[in-house]
Design goal:
The chain has an eight-stranded parallel β-barrel with strand order 1-2-3-4-7-8-9-11, surrounded by eight helices. It has a two-stranded antiparallel sheet with strand order 5-6. The C terminus is likely disordered. By secondary structure, the chain is of the alpha/beta class. It has a single domain, classed as TIM Barrel (Alpha-Beta Barrel), CATH 3.20.20.30. Strand 7, helix 7 and strand 8 form a beta-alpha-beta unit. The longest helix is centred in the C-terminal third of the chain and has 22 residues.
């Protein structure tokens, strides 16, 4: 069982009347609302929080990629990954991930990920993603090509890491005469690959076939995670093997304080800012972005999306967040992790407007009073996963 700190690096100063004035925190939100001076403070606070995870004994840190969004101000997670590679000593660095169809050519992903792996001494986890629906509006990329572009780019990136160069690549979307990336990653045949998903059957089947790791996209009711992880395990069985728990990851917001009452008192306003403001407009599926069968699965899940939740009771009953005393958080996580059968917990310890002193306190309490017990209770002997 592995424990990661995941960071979105959100914008925490949307106006009070945001919901009434703006349709979305994505793509079309005027960037005059961004204050670079405050952004300087946020970036450095957020990086310090991730560096703290290394000192506290977490197994890894996670960053991700979003564009033109107050939800996450990391258009280049590789920049953050490179900083963390230099300023941490032990943790895995999971960049979850690079949206491959947005890179032209995608060999740039292979190069930059290899740099992070080399700088860190072989600690990179390579996240490869199709990219969220809003990104296709941000970049004016034809969404009907999303899956085909991702598939071609993924195979090209894997070849860059595992096949001696120079070689030629002549695909539908990219034609490259000389593919010969320097540097090459330390981890061979390549770094571990994580692919997140919200229930797309194509993604589940791809990850199972490749024996990669499937990371469940957050903000859904526990029932949605159960369904998707069961589908992934079934897909692994169809490919002739049993899924290892470390091929599955559960991402969710976590907040710990001395008591349940104190935890909710410190956290709740920041959580509702996140739900009501930053999640607004996230669920966008451009025409052709995913197949009809996967869209049907995803639409069933959307009825249980966090954005539609209206009460603390719903948040707790649905397992959308885990908030409380160390004992409460420990017991609920142990129960849910066992039920879901996952081997990676990706905790969002900073969310919305949560100030850095509370985020750091949250991480410290979790590391000191929750993590040791979970390691004891959930300890397993991990198997060596194939990476290709």
């Amino acid at each position: 069982m592995k424990f990661f700190t995941f960071h979105l690096m959100p914008w925490d100063r949307l106006p009070e009347d945001f919901e009434a004035r703006y349709d979305s925190a994505w793509t079309w939100l005027p960037n005059e609302l961004y204050d670079p001076d405050h952004g300087h403070t946020l970036y450095n606070n957020y990086l310090d929080e991730l560096i703290l995870a290394d000192e506290l004994g977490f197994d890894g840190v996670c960053v991700n990629e979003h564009h033109q969004s107050a939800y996450g101000t990391m258009p280049s997670p590789n920049l953050m990954g490179a900083i963390l590679a230099r300023q941490t000593k032990r943790v895995k660095i999971a960049v979850v991930g690079n949206a491959l169809p947005l890179y032209s050519p995608p060999t740039r992903v292979a190069e930059e990920f290899a740099m992070i792996d080399v700088i860190s001494g072989g600690r990179l986890i390579a996240g490869l993603v199709v990219g969220g629906g809003p990104e296709y509006y941000s970049f004016s990329v034809n969404p009907t090509n999303a899956r085909a572009m991702f598939d071609e780019a993924m195979e090209l990136v894997l070849r860059c890491w595992s096949e001696p160069g120079p070689f030629e690549h002549y695909g539908k979307f990219w034609k490259l005469k000389n593919v010969n990336p320097w540097p090459r990653p330390i981890q061979q045949p390549h770094p571990p690959v994580w692919i997140p998903g919200a229930g797309s059957q194509e993604t589940i089947e791809l990850v199972a076939r490749k024996r990669f790791a499937y990371m469940g996209i957050p903000y859904f009711h526990l029932d949605v995670f159960r369904k998707n992880f069961d589908a992934f395990r079934n897909a692994c069985e169809a490919n002739g093997y049993t899924a290892d728990p470390e091929q599955m990851g559960w991402l969710l917001p976590i907040y710990v304080a001395q008591t349940d009452e104190q935890a909710w008192a410190e956290y709740e306003q920041h959580l509702w800012y996140f739900i009501k403001k930053l999640l607004k407009g996230l669920v966008v599926f451009p025409p052709g972005y995913t197949s009809a069968r996967s869209m049907a699965r995803i639409k069933q899940s959307l009825a249980k999306f966090m954005g539609s939740v209206e009460s603390r009771r719903q948040l707790e009953d649905g397992g959308y967040v885990i908030v409380g005393s160390p004992a409460t958080v420990r017991d609920r996580l142990q129960q849910y992790i066992t039920e879901l059968g996952v081997g990676n917990l990706l905790g969002l310890f900073q969310l919305g407007t949560l100030p850095t002193h509370l985020a750091r306190k949250n991480m410290t309490l979790f590391a000191e009073q929750v993590l040791p017990a979970l390691r004891r209770e959930l300890s397993t002997e991990p198997t060596e996963l194939q990476t290709a």
